[in-house]
Amino acid sequence: MAAELVKNAVGRLVPVEVNGKKEVPFMGRDKYHHEGHRYGPPIVFADDFPADGNKLIPTLKEALQEAGLKDGMVVSTHHHLRNGDLVANKVFKIASEMGIKDLVWFPSASFPCHKEIIKYLDDGTIHHIEGSMNGPLGRYCSEGKMRGTAILRSHGGRYQAVEDGEVIIDIAVLAAPTSDPFGNCNGVQGPSACGGLGFGLADSRYAHKSIVVTDNLVPFPCIPMQLCGNHMDYVVEVEKIGIPELIISGTTQITKSPDRLLIAELTSKFCDAAGLIYDGFCFQAGAGGTSLSIGIYFHELLKKRGWKARWSIGGSTKYSVKMLEEGQLEYMLDGQTFDATAVRSIAENSNHQDISVFHTYDYHSKGNHLSMMDVVVLGATEVDVNFNGNVVTHSDGLLLHGIGGWQNCLFAKCTILPIPLFRNRMPVILDEVTTIVGPGNMVDVIVTERGIAINPLRKDLIEATKNSGLPIKTIHQLQKEAEAICGKPAKPEFEDEVVAVIKWVDGTIIDSVRKVKNK
Amino acid sequence: MEKRATTGNEGKKVRSDCQVTLELTSSGGIQIELKSKVEKLYGATIRKDCEEVLTHFDIKNCNLNVIDSGALPYVLQARLEAAIKLVKETDKEFLPAMLPENIYATKKDSYRRSRLYLPGNTPKLVINAGLHKPDGVILDLEDSVAPAKKYETRFLVRNTLRAVNFYGAERMVRINQIPKGLEDLEYLIPHNVNLILVPKCEDAEQIEVLEEVIDELKKKYHVTHDIWIMPIIESALGVINSYCIACSSPNIVSMAIGLEDYTADLGTQRTNEGTETFFARCQVVNAAKAAGIQAIDSVFSDISDMEALTENVKKSKQLGFDGMGCIHPRQIEVIHENYAPNEAEIVKAKKIVNAFIIADEQGLGVVSLGSKMIDPPVVKRAQKTIDIALQLNKIDANWRDEFLKED
Q: Are the CB atoms for B299 and B326 separated by under 8 Å?
């Protein structure tokens, strides 16, 4: 089924129809506006629900049946239980046993623990996935084995799609580390505590039916109510929703790699030289090893100067909690809580505030936090000489990661990508990225161990750092340096078939991913 | 000669390396089986590179199996050449191009505060080493290389000297113990090595033998730049002979102490306080200074404890050492920072250098500070202190303006 392809504003060929629905090609930053109203789920009546507030259903299967699970529905889950999630696999196992077909799985992200989903793609239970493509699922998709076309969205883009009705969630299954029988729930208490539950917010509000699944049922009221029981249809108590040691992710270890530490050090020196760090600034640094060490360099710098950061957006970790508790960070707005220290902090510190994608990234809200941000530090699998960035495919063409908040973060005042110039012989700066996830006019700085390239559009940054003594080079110089060491890489070969599309934050398609060619 | 040879490394943790297995055959042409992590990007290049090396050594029929974990071309070439030489008699060499950036010489009194040890047979640790700005890098052929890997490591170290940019760090190689280490030299001397480390050095004769071989090779390969020598004292006998060793050649620029082997030789254990090695350290410092060369301290092996390293460097500096070995790039900055002159030393150096400049301006032959005359070596050392302080941003380039104002 060769769909019609058109060239979009970044020169990529994208389909005008995906999984039978009309799509809009990417038009450029801030270009696509359309009229209409927010999507609304069907109206409900309080008297249809138990007056005693008890929405408990004995099993998840019965809850799914009650919710009317049937062929072709969209079923959503959130990813706060990360690689320790036991709920998503369970949902599709039940659906498969019930003989349901052609579901769409709409997770806020997937993890290697969701490898089991391949079984349900193979047996027809699931038609396609709209969400991130990690590890085994990405490979499966890249090899063209999924029947439908995968749709990848950023965290903000997922919220946008739910709000404007691009995706209509039939059933949301929301894992909750603590819940009451009414469906008020949180992620800060219970044996499977994970921190906030913000990624489930859109689902709870807009899904036609919402099911809370918990392994820590408490009597009403469950406080804090991170998600509100008034949006919930059913509550199911199960023995276990997650594996605690896999919920608290391993990514919050500061890197020991001397090369990554060097990149982190250069990044913080660059931020300082460019005047991006000041008393009262705000930043986002992720939970990857390099980003964590950049946060630590920021912390040291603020301490030395007697400065404070006014706010940061987490990915909270023990390192950002330390900054908060030692007084170099006033407020931490937290969308994702990564380790035990951060879970403890969000539960007890009122300056550590649970927020959702709606606040930080949503395209259909009246402004969002990210554009106020002074600096964000992001990763990338590849960039190209035009500063386009890729986070979803590797240079061999395989789809192996989700977008996360990456695209949304590009709206910050300064976006910096600290990345090694090559990874195990694979150069990171290419003539053209395999997949455009972020347009080059929104990526400001690339910091590698062999030098720093500033986007020529950012004359202010170039001017500010020209006498800094930092190794500022052009992106072409950096590319040449890598190729002198590694050799010029060949391009991966693809089939024509589009196996996935990448959405921009506004719902348009910025690029498509082709099936990899197997020799 | 073997019929079949395997060189290099493969495995889960192996990066930037490859394993090659070569078997000569009598017919069937060159058969290459390649398994590579970068197959899609570099598969064709790797095959072509293999064919080029095989052809260079006149091999027309063979089975070659390559398991590649992202080896750079110079690594692949070294692995393949080593395998070829295990199955075939040949005088040829396959040399990667010498990077123009790698042609530089160092001075007798170049800084040697930090020298980063790099296991000679582990390419992934080598490629970025120079970026961490050590004063020197040591490609190690000795203790970090398993006996079975010694042969192939020579090819890799040779190619590394030619193809890897160390961004100005002094290019050092630790050879094997003499006499075995003499065989290593042919792989090093023609390839712009700056300094040879001589492990477990016990007497001056070892240095004399070494110098003879180096001189021969320099002549043979028309090498004209200086190749310095750094003996490492690692035994009780070496400590006793250290002054004779230090004086045994004008090319010796510094002398290091290796405490692991030394304590073993004494039959004792290394402690953090270092009482058991106090004598040896002082002896080596004293011998080095008496011979007019730099004294270099042993490595500090706990790479996670930067505070203990700091203390260790401070003590080392106080004893008179000028530098120390390091085994992790993150140690470099701590070492530079703590061998650097402290506040009192900088103030004193400023006074002396200032007095010198004034004397010079006034055309005086003698430098004096107050009522004291200052000897030229003191001025020289003060100037060096100022240079280091400048390099570490401890003082401003215009420090004299400030200084004169205060005065």
A: yes
